Amino acid sequence: MTDKGLILACSAIGAGLAMIAGIGPGVGQGIAAGHGASAVGRNPGAKGTIMSTMLLGQAVAETTGLYGFAVAIILLFANPLIGRL
Amino acid sequence: MGNGSCLLSSLLSTGFAGQTIQFSSKDDVTFGVDGFLQYELFGQKLWLTTTHIAMLIVILALVVFALIANRVIKRADPEKAPGPFLNVIEYMVESIDNLTKANMGEKHGGKFSNYIGTIFCFILVANVAGLFGLRPPTADYGVTFGLALITFILIHYNGFKYQKMAHITNLFKPVLLTPINIIGELATPLSMSLRLFGNVLSGTVMMGLIYGLIGKFAIVWPSFLHGYFDVFSGAIQTYVFAMLTMVFISNNFEEE
Q1: How many domains, in total, are found in chain B?
Q2: B163, B255 in Cβ contact below 8 A?
Q3: Are B31 and A73 in contact (CB under 8 A)?
């Protein structure tokens, strides 16, 4: 195996590992959505406020997952390690 | 010249374009930024990419819409009931006014409805552009980082305007937390731009994979995926970007 091939293979594995970061936002968004649903059940009149607060919180919780996604994309398509050969 | 700065400059200036960064290695899977035309400016090799062209189309669409809206508003007769198009425009303007006033307060909200409305229209149309066969301009880090930088400058301009020097001294409030405060301020545009970029890019990558890998079998059924990735996700991210901009700017108003 050439050096470049090794780096490419390890980068692909690393990209896959980086997407493990998707677990956290998934759990967090699920918790936020569940609490939002129970809040709407308790107080249906405040549906608009609850929805917007929930979406904002979910979007902020998603950030860490997107950092993982950015790392995976950089490893796959803009690999900085190949230049170090 | 190190590779890191090369990557950074290519990320910032031309997005994911250029010869070192290849999204589409094969002909059948295309979800990357493709360069159409190479030119040189100040000794740098730059590309005219799909992002620029998609963005020009988006801006043209918005300008045409604005011109028509302007014409309709000028010719509107206040005595009569407004027509359907005028109703839609009034609803848009009113809802954005209400949004800014609800989130930034009655006093300051009206001043920012211009900016919020502009970025709302632009990001929404840019995100939905995937429906029309364009590559969404917001799936390019250059575009989203530019938008986030405008917000960043606006945050700190208003910070200095409303809090004077306290805007700087607040950074050193608990002396031990100074580095964390500074990093937190600098991370704001980074996280805002990465959030928009990541969401739109993930949708683009998924659609590119679906159309590229199972080409002939992707006939009608990907339309619901378009509905999710382009319309739903795009609208949510637009709302979130505008909302976060409003929240960060109005943080500066409270401690007057």
Answers
A1: 1
A2: yes
A3: no
For the beta carbon of residue B85, count every other beta carbon within 10 angstroms.
13
pLDDT attached to residue B37: 73
Distance of CA B37 to the CA centre of its chain: 24
Q: Quick check: is B42 in a domain?
A: no
Q: Is the dihedral of CA B161, B162, B166, B171 positive or negative?
A: negative
Instruction: Look up the ipTM and state it.
Output: 0.79
**Residue B7 to residue A80, Cβ atoms within 8 A:** yes
CA distances from B18 to A77, B39, B57, B174, B253 (A): 12, 11, 22, 45, 43
DSSP letter for each residue of B114-136 = HHHHHHHHHHHHHHHGGGGTSPP
Q: Residue B107 CA to chain centroid, in angstroms?
A: 26
Looking at residue B18, its amino acid is G
Q: Let me know if residue B238 belongs to a domain.
A: yes
Q: Is A77's CB within 8 Å of B16's CB?
A: yes
User: What is the per-residue pLDDT across B100-145, written as a single tens digit (0 to 9) for each?
Assistant: 988 888 888 888 889 999 999 999 999 998 888 888 888 888 899 9
Q: What are phi and psi of B148, to 5 degrees?
A: -65, -30
SS3 labels along chain A: CCHHHHHHHHHHHHHHHHHHHHHHHHHHHHHHHHHHHHHHHHCHHHHHHHHHHHHHHHHHHCHHHHHHHHHHHHHHHCCCCHHHC
Which residues of chain A have a CB within 8 Å of the CB of B205?
73
Within a domain: residue B9? no
On the question of pLDDT at B19 being above 70, the answer is no
Domain ranges of chain A: 24-79
pLDDT in tens, A15-49: 999 999 999 999 999 999 999 999 999 999 998 88
Class of domain A24-79: mainly alpha
Closest approach of chain A CAs to the CA of B197, in angstroms? 9
